[in-house]
Design a protein that fits this description.
Length: 274
């Protein structure tokens, strides 16, 4: 089946990328961000590349899977630059890049979207802009963004969900242990992964509404920062995953919480037959 082939390929690609990450320099950058990134280990941010490879295989095996490759590649490259550049991109440059990626959905959506009305493409572009930021902000703790996106993509894009599924073990289950209670993941999505998934969610039927929890969490954090007089784009450790970690939840239990929060719309749809 396509799903198993994509998961297998994504797992193999993850294992390869984790091993070559030191040569590529694909690590989570902490310079200037130590106040919200307390982990000192270099963690490979290769999840996005593995997910991209899984998506390419899913698209090859399933011709019915419609993907806007110019926007997907643009989102991945934008995030990759932010990942590997010392200090990352400035908020203004990053937002400009996101707007550019969203615009690609309108001007060069790719042959798969040739028959889609311009109004629908514009809607996808707006959703993509929101989703890129929502997924990026939700990737603040292990298992959070990956789990949410895997569930959100599953109903309308099983092959895409499988690509994310191959990444999840390296972020949730396979870990380097620091102490008896503390461990770090073998890999993270990175901005390359969160931006890529944001666009994928925007163009996958029925996926965007399932990101209500990440969007509500992002809205809560932004409002809270604004009320404290803090620039809303400056990261902190007040997200849902940070709160869960603060009360003792690990990556597995946090992933289960995300699953319980994101899944109800899918279950309701299955029960009602809608």
């Amino acid at each position: 089946m396509i799903i198993f082939a994509v998961i297998g390929a994504s797992v193999l690609l993850m294992a390869l990328l984790v091993s070559v990450a030191p040569l590529l320099g694909w690590f989570d950058r902490r310079e200037g961000l130590e106040y919200r990134k307390p982990i000192e280990e270099n963690i490979p941010v290769v999840g996005g590349a593995a997910v991209l490879g899984g998506m390419a295989l899913a698209s090859y095996l399933d011709p019915a899977l419609l993907l806007p490759w110019p926007a997907l590649l643009g989102a991945f490259l934008l995030g990759l630059i932010d990942d590997i550049r010392r200090g990352g991109l400035s908020p203004a440059v990053k937002l400009s890049g996101q707007i550019t990626v969203a615009t690609l959905l309108i001007v060069v959506p790719g042959p798969s979207f040739a028959d889609i009305p311009s109004a629908d493409l514009l809607t996808m572009a707006v959703v993509a802009l929101v989703a890129m930021n929502a997924v990026n902000l939700f990737d603040h703790a292990d298992g959070m963004a990956g789990t949410a996106c895997c569930i959100a993509l599953a109903p309308g894009g099983a092959g895409l969900a499988a690509a994310v599924g191959g990444y999840l073990p390296f972020n949730v289950f396979l870990r380097n242990r620091r102490t008896f209670r503390e461990s770090v993941p073998l890999a993270m999505l990175g901005d390359s992964g969160t931006h890529l998934l944001g666009v994928a969610i925007a163009v996958t039927p029925g996926a965007a509404p399932l990101l209500l929890v990440p969007m509500l969490d992002a809205a809560r954090v932004i409002i809270s920062r604004t009320l404290r007089g803090q620039p809303f784009w400056e990261g902190d450790r007040t997200h849902l995953g940070n709160r869960l970690a603060g009360i003792g939840f690990g990556p597995i239990s946090s992933s289960l919480v995300v699953t319980l929060l994101v899944s109800p719309p899918i279950l309701i749809q299955m029960v009602t037959g809608g």
